[in-house]
Amino acid sequence: MKSSHIAIICIVLLSFFSMYECSKIGRSRKINVPLCFHSKCYNVFKPDCWCCLAAGTKKDDCWLDSDYPNAKEICFKSCIR
Length: 81
Fold this sequence. Notes:
The protein is α+β, with helices and mostly antiparallel strands. The chain has helices at residues 3-25, 71-78; strands at residues 36-39, 49-52, 61-64. The chain has 2 helices and 3 strands.
């Protein structure tokens, strides 16, 4: 058997495994979107703030890690659906 045949067989087997895994979670139709997320506000290379994405609002509230050492906790407490 050529090495290309072996590679194709491996790809097919991995595809079957991933399809099996997806079928297990396919029954759930809800997507869980977190209220707060770690984002890049001023530093392009590293997340430096926590932002709130409240449903129904067009404004994002963000707290900088440097200004608020407990920015994550503040975000989750103040961000309500």
